[in-house]
Amino acid sequence: MERSRPLFRFAELFSGLLIWGAQFTLVYMVTSVACGRGLGRATVASLPAVPAAIVAVTGLALAATGALLGREIAEARRGADARPTDRFLNTTAIALNGVSVLAIAYNALPALIVPLCP
User: Fold this and answer.
1) pLDDT at position 1, please?
2) How many Å apart are CA 106 and CA 42, to the nearest integer?
3) CA–CA gap between residue 63 and residue 38 (Å, rounded)
4) Phi and psi dihedrals of 81, rounded to 5?
5) For the chain, how big is the Rg over CA atoms in Å?
6) Which is nearest to 61 in space by CA: 30, 110, 27?
7) How many C-beta atoms lie closer than 10 Å to residue 41's C-beta?
8) 3-state helix/strand/coil string of the chain
9) Per-residue pLDDT for the chain (118 aa), expressed as one digit of tens each?
10) Rounded Cα gap, residues 55 and 43, in angstroms
């Protein structure tokens, strides 16, 4: 597939990492604000509020990064006649988005397993 917009391709390459960074920031920001304000045990609809927020943010981040990863994999399957540069960038985008999916999932584990506020 012909790519004529390098800035768009740059955004495609690093969007998974940017989503992971946003998820990382939101998870730890929500946790630290809740603990700082004494809301670590607050509930919403009989669910613990902070873990529910972490699950929601993580789910959105995983869905967005998974969609990007799926798009890149589908493009790799279609692009047998693509230029070597495009194949390299596609493979790099697949690797970066795959690592981002793992990082997002790994990032949520401590917030869900470790007690929130001591």
Assistant:
1) 47
2) 24
3) 31
4) -100, 15
5) 18
6) 27
7) 11
8) CCCCCHHHHHHHHHHHHHHHHHHHHHHHHHHHHHHHCCCCCCEECCEEHHHHHHHHHHHHHHHHHHHHHHHHHHHHHHCCCCCHHHHHHHHHHHHHHHHHHHHHHHHHHHHHHCCCCC
9) 455 577 887 888 899 999 999 999 999 899 889 988 888 788 888 878 888 889 999 999 999 999 999 998 998 888 767 788 888 888 899 999 999 999 999 998 887 788 877 7
10) 14
Q: What is the pLDDT of residue 80?
A: 67
d(CA 107, CA 54): 10
CB 101 within 8 A of CB 66: yes
Distance, CA of 29 to CA of 24 (rounded, Å): 8
